[in-house]
Write a structure and sequence with these properties.
The chain is an alpha/beta fold and 248 residues long. The protein is built from seven helices and ten strands. The strands form two sheets. The protein has a seven-stranded parallel β-sheet with strand order 1-10-9-6-2-3-5, covered by helices on one side. The chain has a three-stranded antiparallel β-sheet with strand order 4-8-7, covered by helices on one side. The longest helix has 18 residues. It starts with a strand and ends in a 14-residue tail after the last strand. The structure holds 2-amino-2-deoxy-6-O-phosphono-alpha-D-glucopyranose (GLP). 2-amino-2-deoxy-6-O-phosphono-alpha-D-glucopyranose binds next to loops.
Length: 248
């Protein structure tokens, strides 16, 4: 496990974007696993800028996103397909056929999960997977007490996650209760993982996840067992982290 400490959000975005750009430069046909949320937005902005000004090309890149809300279609402004289109895909030279996200409107959820797992397998697995971290330590939408052995599945979102997501919806009724997510198994099979955390309030959670007890109660803790994990985070103030977990 490697830790990269960023001085602020811009620095964090630069570090994350550099790792992704390096992956694409070394292997233009890379399979990237991508995340949504506020954390990766700055990195996506930089990748778009490097595409426009420095010739970074996505023409051979394939992408698989981590998750998608169940019940939201691609035109819904809060769907993750919409987010990816507007923050990255439509702004670089990636082929739409090479961008993959679970179908939030799938009629048969079991079939959709199987389809997504087969797709990841057919692509040859994920070269580089970008992860954010939920308030409760979730990765993708693998909520606390998830089974570590699961591949893509339909997850029931916990009250903590519903509360965190409520800021994006005007009424509580609109907040999706379920979401498709790559499972922990799919995540752990990625060849390189970046865990990006910009929120200083999550410093304690990161510390517990990266140095504490490995347990489904804190889904991100499984990442300690990954052979090629890079944690990129804004350097926490010492009071943000419990004594046992202060960065060395
Ligand atoms: C959602 C996504 C996660 C993401 C998390 C953190 O829950 N399913 O994949 O990591 O949000 O979001 P943010 O980056 O806004 O803190």
């Amino acid at each position: 496990m490697q830790h990269l400490f960023a001085s602020d959000y811009d620095d964090l975005s630069h570090k994350v974007a550099s790792l992704i750009a390096a992956q694409i430069t070394l292997k233009p046909e890379s399979v990237l696993g991508l995340a949504t949320g506020s954390t990766p937005m700055g990195a996506y902005r930089l990748l778009v800028q490097w595409h426009r000004c420095a010739g970074l090309s996505f023409s051979k890149v394939r992408t698989v996103n981590l998750d998608e809300y169940c019940g939201l279609g691609p035109d819904h402004p809060q769907s993750y397909r919409y987010y990816m289109q507007h923050n990255l895909f439509s702004l670089v030279d990636i082929s739409p056929d090479n961008t993959h996200i679970p179908n939030g409107l799938a009629e048969d959820p079991d079939e959709e999960c199987k389809r997504y797992d087969h797709l990841i397998c057919d692509l040859g697995g994920i070269d580089l997977l970008l992860l954010g971290l939920g308030d409760n330590g979730h990765i993708g939408f693998n909520e606390p007490d998830c089974l570590f052995g699961l591949s893509t599945h339909l997850a029931h979102l916990t009250p903590c996650t519903l509360k965190a997501n409520s800021r994006f919806f005007s009424t509580p009724e609109e907040i999706p209760r379920q979401a498709y997510t790559m499972g922990i198994r799919s995540i752990m099979e990625a060849r390189h993982i970046i865990l990006a955390v910009s929120d200083r309030n999550r410093a304690g959670t990161v510390a517990a996840a990266t140095r504490g007890f490995i347990s489904p109660e804190l889904p991100a803790s499984i990442l300690q067992l990954h052979p090629n994990l890079t944690v990129v985070m804004t350097k926490p103030d010492s009071e943000d982290v419990p004594d046992d977990f202060r960065p060395r």
